[in-house]
Design brief:
Layout lengths: L3 E14 L5 E16 L3 H7 L1 H6 E6 L4 H6 L2 E4 L2 E11 L2 E7 L4
Antiparallel strand pairs: 1-2, 1-4, 2-3, 3-6, 4-5, 5-6
Length: about 100
């Protein structure tokens, strides 16, 4: 099983506001963890559709808590930024569906 290191990034308020009164946030690395990419099954493709499964990946990890995963806005893997689309709690494992562009 091949694991990859990834940065779990969460937005953190800076305490400042923009001209419209919105909070300004900055991205902070919450945790550096290891995870594994998993393949889409035929059932996943039929359930989610080819649009999602062609542009998204599944990342399986046991080093991130459910609360940390819910707070995350994106993950960074080898310099590539992936947006966290959904989180599924599988007991001691977390399954993150992440969306981004692969080169």
């Amino acid at each position: 099983m091949r694991f990859v290191n990834f940065d779990l990034v969460t937005p953190q308020k800076t305490g400042e506001k923009d001209r419209l009164g919105n909070d300004i946030t900055k991205d902070v690395v919450k945790r550096v963890a290891k995870g594994r990419f998993t393949e889409w099954s035929a059932d996943d493709v039929s359930l989610y559709g080819r649009d999602l499964t062609s542009s998204a990946r599944k990342l399986l990890t046991n080093q991130v808590s459910k609360e940390e995963a819910k707070q995350a806005s994106h993950v960074v893997i080898d310099g590539s930024k992936y947006k966290v689309e959904s989180i599924k709690d599988l007991g001691r494992w977390r399954l993150l569906v992440i969306k981004g562009y692969r080169l």
